[in-house]
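FIELD: query
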Amino acid sequence: MRTFIKAKPIFLGLLIAVGLFAQGSRAHAATETLIVAGGCFWCVESDFESVKGVKSAVSGYTGGTTKNPTYKQVTKGGTGHYEAVKITFDPNVVGADRLLHMFFRSVDPTDAGGQFCDRGQSYATAVFVSNKAQKAAAEEAKAEAQADLGRNVVTPILKSSRFYDAEDYHQDYYKGDNLVLTRFGPKRQSEAYKRYRKACKRDAKVKSLWGSAAPFAH
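FIELD: result
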């Protein structure tokens, strides 16, 4: 009996430690990723980082064959890569189905030649799926978007491949404080981003297409 009484605190301590480890493991596992291409990755990153439940949005390149592509290579063409964003999210807060619903309504999914003022394959829309559940969710979201628009949605649903992070200066460009040279003169990144987005008419065109259903159009 004495041995049991002495051992009991140690046993309870082990149970607590195991419980905390399991809880930590579940918390760590409670994130998923979704990769989408919606034209300028600065804009897609900015949009989805504002969504509750999204942990991060990283600009990058995917879908092509060139290893370790650069921004210059991708925008020039020939790499097969899209400008894309890898969204990491907590599925207990926001699901992939909701993010996909928002994605289709944040772009012009009827345009196969690029997005808004950015033209070419690297700026086209796409959804990259990593499993059957994501594929089913993407197909359903695409069908709903097509039904709502009454127009053909051309956004392809593709099997995910290696995602390459874009150069550091592209990450969080929309809120950067560095000075950059623009056609409007030297501007801080955040201001240059706002001017670019407005000049490209991204929000105006999304709003004209989706109306009040557009989740990010300002």
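FIELD: remark
The radius of gyration is 22 Å.
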